[in-house]
Known about the structure:
Elements: E1 4-6, H1 13-25, E2 29-33, H2 38-43, E3 51-55, E4 63-64, H3 67-77, E5 81-83, E6 95-96
Parallel strand pairs: 1-2, 1-6, 2-3, 3-5, 4-5
Amino acid sequence: xxxxxxxxxxxxxxxxxxxxxxxxxxxxxxxxxxxxxxxxxxxxxxxxxxxxxxxxxxxxxxxxxxxxxxxxxxxxxxxxxxxxxxxxxxxxxxxxx
Length: 97
């Protein structure tokens, strides 16, 4: 399950990504709707402690269409992953930011 969905268009892609990273550091499961810059993706290597899913899938990241597999992979390897199944299996109790 994804606990937070970061999609507020009043933030830039990198700002939404940064919010997601911050939440994942507190062992949360986060989905970010953004196209973060390559620099932002490189900056967070090793910083993910919960799960950090990004949609659409960024180049050079593992990409999943099953939310549970994406969450498991991100948590096990402590890296952000791409996710392309938005809307199909995110739980309605997710908090949108």
